[in-house]
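Revision sheet: structure tokens.
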Amino acid sequence: MEKNVFIEKVAKFIESHHILSPNEAYLVAVSGGADSVVLLRVMLELGYRCTVAHCNFHLRGEESVRDEHFVTALCRDLGVECIVTHFDVPAYERAHGVSTEMACRELRYAWFRELMREHSLDAVVVAHHSDDNVETLFLNLMRGSGIAGLTAMRPVSGDVRRPLLGVSRGEIEAFAAEIGQTWVTDSTNLESIVKRNRLRNIVIPELLRQFPDAQSGILRTIGNVQQCNSLYRQYIDELKQACCSTDGDIVRINLASLGKRVGTNIHTALFEIIRQYGFNSAQVNEMLAASTGCRFISGSHIGVINRDFLDISPSTGDEEIPSIEQVMNVEIRDAAGFLPRSLNGKTAVCFDASILNAKLELRHWQQGDRFRPFGMKGTRLVSDIFSDLKLSEPQKRRVLLLTADGDIVWILGIRSGALYSMTASTKRILVLTLRSMEF
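Predicted:
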């Protein structure tokens, strides 16, 4: 694609979606790949003020070092400030119980926002393009997404901007070739291990071989769904205005009024209204069948049924949470001669005594909690463990989790975690035994 044609196409997309402003300054995320390199070149051509951020995750040995050197040299040649940081991804994975992919995402976006504050930048600009958007749609479809997930990525999402969503990977690489711009290739993108790479390298290419016009049709569908979602969100906002009131920190939802307005769609409507408070779809089902006085707990709020109303108030974090001493016997033992297999991991567990250096707390389960069970290398969603056990919503809400500095180390009565487990060098252990399963 000719240089000026490509730049004009991107400029029109930026203008039509109100993505960037000449009065603002931007942090541009540059990995060294074709997409981010072209993003930087185009933004400079269009006169935007840019500061580059590059993350070295040290996951690909010398290749990671090569990428950093490439980006710093590119910025030096272009006269752009480049800020580089280094991350210990395995340490973050262990501390937070997340996948490598999620760890990298959380680390880089937290750093981006820190840089924006420090350097008074208005937004972070990333190089997602139309091919990425098609992949995102497929990923969300496979997860069983609702309407929001089917909108895929948007040109503007809070403080994240995506000016290349209107062009394809092929157009980006053709532009780079036209201007003689080189780039580096992440070898892991060629490995079809993670879902996105399997879609990118196997599924979508085969789909396009069979249906050459599929990508343009899918992109039109994404645009149509985004418009539908805008109307949908507007309707939900109107329902909130009509059926909700506030009294201090309490949000009161008139369930009777809501039911009259939406009829059999009340489950969907109520879920959309209260999802921001951390409640899930299954809890909504129970709320609609519950009687006066029934309480529902999310990670951040409590919902109480009061006749035809649902009252939602912020949780103080200690509702129905007993102390550790109330729930279990606590004992410190010498590790010599102790047999961990004498404990079942459900009602009795042991940890290396170094856990006592951490802040130990009990809390209820929250949506999105992840846990590394003893004997497993990876982590699992606590909700998946509950599903395996076929726990009802009331049962899930009664389960207590023991955390150490925020990390889940024991699902009481169900399973012990791998963190702080005994090793050959352990000298002292902490033994915990439940007094009762009635919390």
